Known about the structure:
Participates in both transcription termination and antitermination. The protein is α+β, with helices and mostly antiparallel strands and about 475 residues long.
Amino acid sequence: MSSPIEQAIRQIVEEKGLSYESVMETIEAxxxxxxxxxxxxxxxxxxxxxxxxxxxxxxWDVKTVVEDQELPEKVEEEEFDEFKRPPKPxxxxxxxxxxxxxxxxxxxxxLTDAKAxxxxxxxxxxxxxxxxxxxxxxxxxxxxxxxxxxxxxxEAEREVTYNEYKEHEGDVLMGTVQRRQGxxxxxxxxxxxxxxxxxxxxxxxxxxxxxxxxxxxxxxxLGMRGPEILVxxxxxxxxxxxxxxxxxxxADGTVRIEAIAREPGSRSKVAVACDDNGIDPIGACIGQxxxxxxxxxxxxxxxxxxxxxxxxxxxxxxxxALAPAKVESVELDEESKVATVTVESDQLSLAIGxxxxxxxxxxxxxxxxxxxxxxxxxxxxxxxxxVEVGSKPTEAVVEAEVEEEVEEAQAADVAEDVxxxxxxxxDDGLEDEETADEESAMDAVEDDALPTSAMDEADAxxxxxxxxxxxx
Length: 472
């Protein structure tokens, strides 16, 4: 039967989705930091090994063997005094630089001294000296250990979240609307929280906390505050992935999607093709009594979807793309890539569409500029002059403002993490500690967990300025 400590570790592993090894590494790093705080020196390289089965602990002082150097007395007495912080960096002369790196007696051992401990020691070897285990740690050491555990577990969670959602980049996932931060929507994806910018929100759609929506994972990056997951409801790829999900023939490659043109929230045109003459690609997408396409339309919030048959012949493809209008003829100018189509007068409005939407989408779908002319008359409409429905003369969203709102949303998530950590159970002996002690413990955390990346540096800074709340 496992010990209570081991059971607690297993519970953390299960609840936070971390590996057992990463949690053990965190605990051992915290114990090493606690030892440095009460019994060692912050510059020491302490290695800890903890056995949760019997709560046994082993500690080693780890040093690297370096060549013999002439050591000035002031190095021992001043620069590496265990009760002082390291001196401020000073500008070194060329002579100092030629001498090579300075000797650090807390992390290094000269070759002569190393051979006294190990006869065959060589430069570059790492010597581990086992230390006596203290009977107990002080309150400050315990607080330091607690802060190290909190910080490192949060970092491990962020890395797990990043790795999980990086694999889903380019996929469509179901999410839950969490809240609105300015014009930015935060979407809960389970373990991670994603950001949906204004340009990625469908015009006319309203997002309320608790709403379940499908989103396209545009990108997943590891930022200074953790994973940055950007999702979209307006990307054409969302339509593509929904077709793959709902239509088996597209999922298995029997029917191909050749192109998609979309005006989110209003209308999409999807060009499909199939090499098997026995399969109707349009019918496969629509489904019996329109069941398949209606499911997709429902996921898109009622957005209309036109299924167009792709044709390698550019003229036929342009004719098909202007559906539901019936086109009489098409003239192609290959050099300027302009298609002039002729329709009957009663088909003119259908060909152009409301606000020029139909001809505009057809032009995007086929990658041809399209002019629409009435039979026996002049050109009545063009994809070039069609104004997009809902467009404005200037951008609706200023990029700088959006970036600021995104940063605010991410900062709010970090603050929630800190609050959650602060609300954990605290030992009674620690509850009465003053704020100065807490800040001192945080200084120790910064010393023991030196940042190795921009994210680590930001986390260390956040930990230093956001101490845990004290309980009365």
